[in-house]
Design a protein that fits this description.
Length: about 325
């Protein structure tokens, strides 16, 4: 008998929902999806009500299990106060319990980690070739509204465990004098003292990189629109270098011998950053661990619904 899974990926800009079916053995099939603007809801309960009134194919209260992924640390498996959303999520509140029955709340990059073992992860694009070690830890990271990170480890023949991280809030490592000048520029223009990975390799980071290098203050979408046309863009070169550096550091931190997977909107929409020579150079740039990094494969999950697949994979494991 087929079971139904409601998967959700609640982001700072959009909230994505998906209806999956599974036979609890091998199949995990996507039936339908729905995107809703997160900012147009004043609470999580209101967001669920908007979903109910939409043309989505699975009523939330009819799903056998619901797995909700959200940016930010999850407390007790049922509460999160996302840093880039004006409201919190508490699955124990009566208004929410009425709308979903068996529900689980997980970090959004925990979902991205589980996606690595879903059909979406298996079809990921190879950016840098390497040697996968079957029982090696898998590192997952990606930038969208912010920079997310997670680790995936195999705990049995068929079961995986994803561990969350808030490493995107760590300070970004600026190295050269010109990069330090960019850091000061970012501080001055943004009014922010702590320039973290969240601020550098996310969409907003592209805005400040381009502004610093060219004097043009453009929206991130305007900046990325130029990448396909301007192959010698200095903005693209810097973005590729910074993204490679973030990936290098995380691959070493978790010793990602099972591979490093990149998800998130920025890389999916602008793969030129990952195929740029600066990305490869920055990723391999280590006087002590370069030989290790050269063996770690890097993949791009460019499906915008990867978080939904990961949430569904986790729901399938529970069922």
């Amino acid at each position: 008998m087929l079971k139904t899974i409601l998967a959700a990926d609640i982001g700072g800009t959009n909230s994505r929902f998906a209806h999956f079916q599974t036979d609890l053995k091998t199949t995990l099939d996507l039936v339908g999806t729905k995107w809703l603007p997160t900012t147009e809801a004043e609470s999580f309960a209101e967001l669920l009500e908007q979903l109910r009134l939409s043309d989505f194919t699975l009523p939330a209260d009819k799903a056998d299990i619901a797995v909700i992924a959200v940016a930010g640390p999850v407390e007790g498996g049922n509460y999160c106060a996302p840093p880039y959303i004006s409201w919190d999520i508490d699955l124990t509140r009566e208004e929410n319990e009425k709308k979903v029955k068996q529900a689980y709340l997980i970090n959004d990059f925990v979902a991205q980690a589980y996606a690595c073992r879903s059909p979406i992860g298996k079809s990921a694009r190879t950016i840098l070739a390497g040697e996968i070690i079957a029982d090696g830890a898998i590192g997952v990271l990606g930038a969208g509204t912010a920079l997310g990170k997670a680790i995936l480890v195999q705990v049995s023949d068929k079961e995986y465990l994803a561990l969350p991280s808030e490493g995107g809030h760590a300070f970004f490592p600026f190295l050269t004098q010109r990069e330090i000048a960019f850091q000061e520029f970012y501080r001055e223009k943004s009014g922010l003292e702590h320039i973290t990975g969240n601020l550098v390799v996310s969409g907003r980071g592209l805005r400040y990189i381009h502004w610093f290098l060219t004097g043009e203050d453009l929206e991130p979408q305007q900046v990325t629109a130029r990448f396909a046309e301007e192959k010698e863009s200095e903005t693209l070169a810097w973005a590729a270098k910074f993204y490679g550096r973030v990936c290098r550091d995380y691959a070493l931190e978790v010793l990602a011998r099972g591979g490093l997977y990149i998800a998130g909107g920025v890389a999916a929409r602008t793969p030129e950053m990952l195929t740029h020579e600066n990305f490869r150079h920055a990723f391999l740039d280590s006087p002590t661990m370069g030989h290790v990094l050269a063996k770690i494969p890097v993949f791009l999950i460019d499906n915008q619904d990867s978080g939904l697949w990961g949430a569904a994979f986790y729901g399938q494991q529970i069922l």
